[in-house]
Amino acid sequence: MSETTPSIQPLTATQRALSLAEIVGLIISCMPRNGPGWGRDLLSCALVNKLWLEDSLAMMWRSIHNDHRPLDDGYENPGIDNTFLEIRYDRRQFYANFVCCAMINLLDDSWEGEDPWAEGGEFEGLVFPKMTVLHVMLTDIDGMLATGSNTCDGEAVLPSLNCPNLHTMSFELNDTNLVSYEVAADTWESIFWDLPTKFPSLQHLDITGHAHIFPNALRRLQKRHPNLQGLEYLDMHEIRRFLSESELAELDPIGVNHDPMDNEDMDLEDDPDSGEEFTEDLWEDDEVEDGNGDDEDYVE
């Protein structure tokens, strides 16, 4: 070896450690999430080398949800549909392979056009193989219910995402001043109707707050979607009677002069201003045959 030939120095313990995928993955996973500068720090990690890039990308795209965004990003609608619209068509599947958890907006009568996730839509053919949790937002970025009004009483459609390993779905509101009983029973009925065909692997549902549904709605859902577990523990209430117009005129409609925070300790069954009667005993009816329920007023 000549005197001009540089000698090869052995790697230090630190250098060896930072070249191991397990160590790099642990470092990136322990970075404080959502804090100021988190996104920029993660981008810096991605620029170190190929090994760091792979783990950084996995962390960046693991969750597409408001609760998992850096605080300095401000409030935007990070729905998975809005996010993937900004990605070049031939790169979408590459990033979709990283997503484990996401939020998406409910489609309803006010949405013009077809389901972008269905056949012929903008995202046709896109698959999310690692997605196990999906948060469906009942309100938009402005905190309005899905129809853009103070009530959601129309038919709603669950987006046709292709996530074959989905395990849990939750229904949430962006506005904490709203409660899910402002979503009408027929809206829930249309949502339940979509679940077995669009998300057959689903095992758990989570619904924020009270939800008012038609009699035997959960039993019909369980009949059509046997993989679902724990439906009897959901905080849902069956509608037993609709009030007449004259009775409703004597009540203070929810959302006009009613503040849910004024009686947050009051059960809906005890609320004198409630426009409907409810029961919590969802599982004490007769046997359901053919998934149609045994309620004489039910019309499929």
From TrEMBL:
This is F-box domain-containing protein. Residues 253-300 are annotated as: Disordered. The lineage of its organism: Eukaryota, Fungi, Dikarya, Ascomycota, Pezizomycotina. It comes from Penicillium arizonense. Residues 262-300 have a biased composition (Acidic residues).
